Amino acid sequence: MRGKTAEDLGLLELLDPVAEAAGYAIVRLRLMGGEHARRLQIMAERPSDGDMNVEDCARLSRAISEIMDAADPVAGEYTLEVSSPGVDRPLTRLKDFADYQGHEARLELDRLAEGRKRFKGLLAGVEDGQVAVDLEGEEETALIPFAWIIEAKLVLTDQLMKRGAEVRAARLQSDPHQTPE
Questions:
Q1: Cα–Cα–Cα angle for 94, 99, 101, rounded to 5 degrees
Q2: CA-CA distance, 149 to 68, in Å (whole number)?
Q3: Are residues 39 and 97 in the same domain?
Q4: Cα dihedral angle (134, 137, 139, 142), rounded to 10 degrees?
Q5: Structural domain count, the chain
Q6: Residue-level pLDDT, tens digit, the chain, 181 residues
Q7: Which of 2, 51, 116, 135 has the fewest Cβ atoms nearer than 10 Å?
Q8: Are 104 and 164 found together in one domain?
């Protein structure tokens, strides 16, 4: 889920070590567009606190640009975009589902499960490589194999906004020189 295509996955192999060396983790990578005017979109965060401010984006962008210029893995021209995953972030790693337990999410599967591919509910943790979800209108917690999930994203709720505000406030308290975004 961090990458959709074989090209995305190849770029992740190349760029994951670069991001890690710079102190970041790539949450999602997408190379979009046709033969012309392609866009390489990278969402990243600091593993220590899940944050990614403007300076972090610029720092990671420079590190990635150096490697991309040297390796030249993308045919033709492209634009590099490095950003934060945002409050209503995509969930791309098994740890994301555990980290955001108790928050609402939308999931899309690569196959039918109980007659459908799309689900919405409260994340209830992770168990043996499966994502636990309390689905709307269901009494029992559903266990969905992580390997079946092709897209997952947090739903923007008041609870999620409050968590984001608390994280920002804590960050500003720990580093008073940082400016709010």
A1: 100
A2: 29
A3: no
A4: -40
A5: 2
A6: 899 999 999 999 999 999 999 999 999 999 998 777 899 999 999 998 888 999 999 999 999 999 999 999 998 889 999 999 998 899 999 999 999 999 999 999 999 998 999 999 999 999 999 999 999 888 999 999 999 999 999 999 999 889 888 877 877 787 655 555 4
A7: 116
A8: yes
CATH number where 46 lies: 3.30.300.70
In angstroms, what CA-CA distances link 3 with 29, 88, 95, 108? 5, 18, 16, 15
Tell me which of 30, 56, 83 is where a domain ends.
83
Do 11 and 45 have their domain in common?
yes
Say if 121 falls within a structural domain: yes
End-of-domain residue from the set 83, 105, 134: 83
